[in-house]
Amino acid sequence: MRSPVTLSAWIVLALTGTSLVFPLMDAAPSSPTGPLSVTIIGPETVTAGEDVNFTCSADCSPSCTYTWMLEGQTADGKVATVTPSGAAKSLEMECTALNPESGKSLKMAKTVQVNNPLSVQPKPNTLQSFKKPFLLICVGADPTATIEWYKDGHLLTIDTQMTLPADNSTLKFNSLLPSHGGLYQCISEKGSSRIISVGYMLTSGPWSVKITGPKMAAAGERTDFTCSADCSPSCTHGEVFKNGGDDPSEQGGFPSGSYSQRQTVIRWTPDQPDTTQVFTCVVENTAARRSATYSKTVKVIKPSGPDLQPSPHPKDKSGSMALKPRTALCLAFSVGLLVHRAL
Known about the structure:
Residues 299-321 are annotated as: Disordered. Residues 1-27 form the signal peptide. By secondary structure, the protein is mainly beta. The protein is 5% helix and 50% strand. It is built from 1 helix and 27 strands. It has one helix spanning 325-342, and strands at 10-15, 18-23, 33-41, 45-47, 52-61, 65-70, 73-76, 79-82, 90-98, 105-115, 119-122, 134-139, 146-151, 154-155, 162-163, 170-173, 182-190, 193-196, 200-202, 204-212, 216-218, 223-232, 236-243, 258-262, 265-269, 275-285, 290-301. It is elongated, with a radius of gyration of 41 Å. Residues 1-25, 242-252 and 308-343 have low confidence and may be disordered.
């Protein structure tokens, strides 16, 4: 009897009771393919403070490696766990699939909307008034969470007109001042969860609008005027010019003479004595949708004395400098004396 043959290099398949023997063939190495069709799998909307997973996948042979980019940070792996803080209304994420053999890569970006349950709101049915009490509430915070208040991106410094309860859930202004204007946010922290609230812009002003400058301006002399106001955030300024007089048809004119304006400062050199000019400064707080005006009437008077500034010498028609009579006489005398001595 023959001894059995060792089938170390053979595969035996049993098919319908018949044994078929095939030789093993060395498979030719396949070329790397991909990445193709990169996709990011995950929700379109997330909630601030909650963990959510996103999966990146691509058609690759051999398997691709994955790198995530989110808010300036990078992470490796097929799955990324994201915990939005609520600081932004949306998140931009990007996944890069890399074929390690071919070195080819492909990117895919995804924008996710963020729902923020935390916000700063004023107490219902309260009006914001200068030197009156005002209350801000951190709405939506977990009662067991730790709350901190921020103003304009910095930890809030409590002044003598502010009050916080033990749980920091509200911020009370005993007397609202211009310095209190700004963007207020509350931050809730519990364990590893940190939520930055939707902010509330506390506006102030415009208050104390005024135009600094003299009530009288001499013709031919420059006079400066400055418009100022207490505003938070900063107000925008504009100037409205009116001529003096009771006749409405005479109003709305531009100042006569030399005029220039830079930001809130105007420089004016009037040229018509015995006239009046009305300057009106319009200050607008665009964030609060409030505006205020201030007007100042300036009377133009005659110059107080002769102009002591040296003026350019006039030129004659030929283009040479003309001489004053006294100067010409002295020069003629000197020339005559020199001629006499020469003779």
